[in-house]
Amino acid sequence: MKCVICKNGDTKNGFTTITLEKNGATLVFKNVPALVCDNCGEKYLEDSVSKELLFKAKGILESGVEVDIRDYQKVA
Ligand SMILES: [Zn+2]
After folding, report:
1. The pLDDT of residue 75 is above 90
2. From ligand 1's centre to the CA of 55, what distance in Å?
3. What is the CATH number of the domain that holds 25?
């Protein structure tokens, strides 16, 4: 798709790192599938990915961590 930020680039399949902060806890997910603009580098998550990301985050945060770095591909 066309990038809505720079309006010049096209997005390509790639991976990104997403940081979530919730209730004082910080969670970092590496290797999150994303669409990345080949011009400005803006990243877009598909709805299904962002939903799954929040679902995975909820499970990890419920275990009581304060800071954690996870590989998105390896979180069940
Ligand atoms: Zn762009």
Report:
1. no
2. 28
3. 3.10.20.860
